[in-house]
Amino acid sequence: MAILEIKSVSKFFGGLAANSNVSFAVEEGMIMGLIGPNGAGKTTLFNCITGYYPPSKGEVIFDGRRMNGLQPDKVCKLGMVRTWQKVRPLAKLSVVDNVMVGALARTSSLRTAREVAMEQLKVVRMEHRADFLAGGLPIGERKKLEVARALATQPKLLLLDEVMGGLNPAESEEIIQLILDIKQHGLTQMVIEHDMKAIMRISDRIVVLTSGEKLTEGTPQEVVSNQDVIDAYLGESHA
Ligand SMILES: Nc1ncnc2c1ncn2[C@@H]1O[C@H](COP(=O)(O)OP(=O)(O)OP(=O)(O)O)[C@@H](O)[C@H]1O
Fold this sequence. Notes:
Blueprint: E1 2-13, E2 16-27, E3 31-35, H1 42-49, E4 57-62, E5 65-66, H2 72-78, E6 80-82, H3 95-103, H4 110-123, H5 139-151, E7 157-161, H6 169-184, E8 188-192, H7 196-202, E9 205-210, E10 213-218, H8 220-224, H9 227-234
Parallel strand pairs: 3-8, 3-9, 6-7, 7-8
Antiparallel strand pairs: 1-2, 1-4, 4-5, 9-10
InterPro entries: AAA+_ATPase, ABC_AA/LPS_Transport, ABC_transporter-like_ATP-bd, BCA_ABC_TP_C, P-loop_NTPase
Organism: Geothrix oryzae
Protein name: ABC transporter ATP-binding protein
């Protein structure tokens, strides 16, 4: 069953079509990759899906419900949460307090929020950092903190925006394993990523955007051998 349906979504900024007539569906339990060159409209689409921008046209249907026009906090309560490419933790709060901010989307009890936050810190293997100031974390741990905060909202669909960006190969590998672990627990994910090897490994299907439009969609193998994708995005090195 599709947990998310994107139906002919367009987003205009003045005369620029950042997304143009984009349609696809994300099935429950899968990892959907979203790739495309810089400026292709990937982040804009995440923003349209999660309520940060209202789509100019088209529909976002999540869990059978039309989401157009709902604010991000409402979208989050309904079970869809995103991470940001540029992670900005609350620097002067501890790691666990940052994750509690996510948990408080579901409960008003600080005790419950703390318990949920500690569970999610275990998932990202950062429980030993719970009392550390978030502002002092290196980039790899900031990225994992961002994932823990999102998980603490107890989503049905997690959208990750370049969670491996700026990480070294060992840190990226840790994130890949984390994404696969999260999938094992049944959570549906949508992932924007520039690292082709990583996106090929983790995705069940991939949507390719160029200049705001959907170029194609398919399994990683189908996408990587598609001549239009090679011409528009991958270049000769992947041919
Ligand atoms: N708030 C905005 N106002 C005006 N133009 C915008 C806005 N947000 C994005 N754009 C433009 O929309 C287009 C798509 O941008 P977007 O950030 O969605 O692409 P992207 O595929 O995520 O790129 P990248 O891989 O570099 O992160 C770009 O031309 C960008 O300049």
